[in-house]
Input
Amino acid sequence: AWLFGHYAFGLSGASLGALTIIAGMPTAMNNFTFAQRYGAFVRESSQVVFLSTVLWLATLPVLLFIFKVGT
Output
């Protein structure tokens, strides 16, 4: 997302940081909700939501440091 935002759109600073952070956010809970409603891939979708959330929690501090958020 950073490369795309920087080179394709010429973004920098806060706009580029916001794009990168938003692109890395966890998978939406809607996926699991629809899977549960229609009875298809419920376990897989719940695992994807869980894993993406855990990875996001590990990645967020790194991204905040790189983009110097809160300083």
In short: The CA atoms of residues 32 and 46 lie 6 Å apart. The helical segments are 2-9, 13-23, 30-38, 42-66. DSSP finds four helices and no strands in the chain. The chain has a mean pLDDT of 90.
